[in-house]
Structure prediction request, 477 residues.
Amino acid sequence: MFRLLEATGRPMTAIKVDGRTVQAEIGANLASVLLRAGFQPFRTTPVSGEPRMPYCMMGVCFECLATIDGITNCQTCLETVREGMVIERQLGASPIKPAGEGAP
Amino acid sequence: MPAVASSDYVVIGGGIVGAAVSYGLARAGEKVLLLDEGDIAFRAARGNFGNVWVQGKGGTSPAYADLTRRAANDWADFARELEERTGQDLHFRRPGAFYICFSSEELQRRAETMARIDKSATVASPFEVLDRPELAKRLPEIGQDVAGATFCPSDGTANPLHLLRALISGTILLGGRYLPRQAALGLRADGQGVAIDTQAGIVNAGKVVLAAGLGNEKLAPQLGMSAPVRPVRGQIMVTEKIRPFLHFGTNFIRQTLEGGCLFGESSEDAGMDDATTLPVLKETARRAITAFPLLRNARVVRAWGALRIMTRDGVPVYQQSRSCPGAFVLSVHSGVTLAPFHCGAIVEALRAGVLDAGTFEPFSPERFHVQAA
Prediction:
């Protein structure tokens, strides 16, 4: 459904999207890469369980959330592609990590 | 100025207190008009924590302890009726709440205060004093540095935004009118009733109820009443939605049904400044993480400040004007907890045209007069 209009010539890298390997340009907008990769839905909501996809693409609506490198609720429209990134779909509310885990 | 509206009852202030009174009046078949200010208003009803809170209240006033306990006991029926009428889910739960203490001295003082209040109150509200091991059995995520807690099964929580919306939509469903962006600029007794100046023109009221929060201070004296209130700022933050882990209320942390965790406990004199400040938010977050260490892994998504409507002793002020008997003032910081009272017994008193001394004398602002001491 979505395709790249023009190539930028930036170097490519392999990222993991819901278990699949996807080739993406380093520095590309992550939400746009996920849309092109057919990542659908991005998540289901904590309240109603409805499927959600990016809406505003500019950091306002919080619809494009996904888990990036184990961190939940990341706004994918504000992220750019980095080497080795792992993106997972989040279903409903995520459990909070125990006190001994997570960032130092 | 032209007369633009008239009603048997006009309630000034579209927060939870004013909306509860309006709803109660409309439900009783009265003709009611609710005047609300615009979005420049200091809206305590839209910034509060959402606790239906009993424990520790009424330390200086047994009447206030009883009022609070009765209202909390009435909350379930109140919520059911309002939900059935409006289709709004108020997210009311009453699992009880813990007041978390960070030292054994604090826990002991707290236990003594609770025992003292319990002795003077006539409506029962049991409580338990829990040391750390007992608390950890009930709240497995509790932190090592918590000394203990008092637990009171009377406490509950509700979604204050849903409550406000339900009360206003319920008022309208029952034939009441709601006029937003109509601040009351001035009031005067006019024959049998009250004339209210608004931006649009004069609104004529048979009876008027002042529920304008901090705005009461300027409005009440115009009709021979007094509302000695001051703003006490609270700062609250909310996290991303997390799978439920906290199934009880606490004095400063609660998890909503939707999963977001609210932290808030600050009390500051900041005048009419309702902003947030980093030192207060930082200290609130530090104490939240001390209470529940796993919260260090939760991300805060919003923070806000709001101004409580605080009387000198923290006890509500309910007063009827002597010079203008159709005028009443309600100044309350516990609009959520006392909502069943405001749409029930208060409404009956308004309709009877008198705040009977038995119920309302302890809540008269005359208690602040030095002669009364």
